[in-house]
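Let's practice the habit of predicting before peeking. Look at the sequence and jot down your guess about where helices and strands might fall. Then scroll down.
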Amino acid sequence: MSDKKPIGSCEEVFTAYGDLLFRLCFIMLGNEADAKDAVQDTVVSYLTKKDGFKNADHEKAWLITTAKNKCRDVFRFKLRHREINIDDLQELLPDKTDLNCIEALMSLPEKYRLVITLYYVEGYRVNEIAKIIGKTPSAVKMRLQTGRKMLQEIYLKEGF
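Done guessing? Here is the structure:
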């Protein structure tokens, strides 16, 4: 755990965590507009909560959890009409290999997509992910294992 104090201002939160939250939300939701909305909603929630953090790590974990929940809200709303705009992906990821990887990741169910993103993209450890999502480390390991198997099947099927 870090002894650093929580950040404070909205601008500082965007500077410190905006990219992380956007990447997470983009992968969870599949498009830039919804991801930006989820990040903004997360920061609005932060502004009403910001005095209740123990330290910077607690603040960061709260922001990730809140962003995940905002994404779930959007996802539930759009579940039956979900579209992934590949043009958005191509603009953000000029390398075709990256695009294939992101497409495969976005095709996973949310619970696997989240842990794989936090572990491989954001560099969190299993124990940290467990705290963030409120699951045991063994549950996180199982989700990582299942998610990797699902990605492997996608890669074999699609011939990436």
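How did you do? Helices lie at 10-29, 32-49, 56-78, 86-92, 96-106, 110-121, 126-133, 137-158.
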